[in-house]
Amino acid sequence: MYTGIIEATGTVRDVDHHDGGLRLSIDAPFEREHGDSLAVDGVCLTVAAREDGLLVADCSAETRRRTTIGRLDAGDTVNLERPLAADGRFDGHVVKGTVDTTTTLREVRDGGDTHEYVFERPASPYVVEKGAIALDGASLTVADVGSDTFTVATVPTTRDETALPAVSVGDAVNVEYDVLAKYARGEAVEA
């Protein structure tokens, strides 16, 4: 489980596409061992190796198809979060690292200290004003919902400590809806 409080950003050093999937090599500012979990732009991945100081993770064809991971290139900045320890302080909101969909950035409104990011609204009952949403793994609050868009507002800390400033108009981001809202509606429970 994750919280959506981004721990650090990393830099993609290599993307090796193979058999429908891919292998990512990421320069990360912390250690992870073989078999450990790591959220990369909100996608829970398993560390396959630590090679030459880089974290290496494999992604299936399904992950590549349903997330933005397949669009990453060497040099891209990504959000990183290690799983929450059982005795850890809980901030943010419950994030599983299982991406529900992707959406596209339509506009950035510069408000000085705060910025508003306007995204295309997915057809989902979970995009609600003042509701929690994870975008590329970052826990954010929906500030406004329009007929075909939703907006999140950010403070300087969010921009300084996440990869959100690297997202340009027209870029896609990973979306994970509030899992507690999904459980409340009974949609996160498998039959």
Residue-averaged pLDDT? 93
Q: End-to-end span in angstroms?
A: 22 Å
Helix share, percent: under 10%
Category by helix and strand content: mainly beta
Low-confidence stretches: none
- How many strand units? 12
CATH topology name of the largest domain: Elongation Factor Tu (Ef-tu), domain 3
What's the architecture of the largest domain, going by CATH? Beta Barrel
Largest sheet: 6 strands, antiparallel, barrel
What layout of secondary structure does this protein have?
Blueprint lengths: L7 E11 L2 E7 L9 E4 L2 E9 L2 E6 L1 H6 L10 E5 L19 E11 L2 E7 L11 E4 L2 E8 L3 E6 L1 H6 L10 E6 L1 H6 L7
Antiparallel strand pairs: 1-2, 1-6, 2-5, 3-4, 3-6, 4-5, 7-8, 7-12, 8-11, 9-10, 9-12, 10-11
How would you characterize this protein structure?
The protein is mainly β and 191 residues long. The chain folds into 2 domains: 8-81, Elongation Factor Tu (Ef-tu), domain 3, CATH 2.40.30; 101-184, Elongation Factor Tu (Ef-tu), domain 3 (Beta Barrel), CATH 2.40.30. Helix content is 9%, strand content 44%. The protein has helices at residues 61-66, 156-161, 179-184; strands at 8-18, 21-27, 37-40, 43-51, 54-59, 77-81, 101-111, 114-120, 132-135, 138-145, 149-154, 172-177. Strands 1-2-5-4-3-6 form a 6-stranded antiparallel β-barrel. A 6-stranded antiparallel β-barrel has the order 7-8-11-10-9-12. A hairpin with a 2-residue loop joins strand 3 and strand 4 (43-51). The radius of gyration is 16 Å and the shape is globular. It starts with 7 loop residues before the first strand and ends in a 7-residue tail after the last helix. The mean pLDDT is 93.
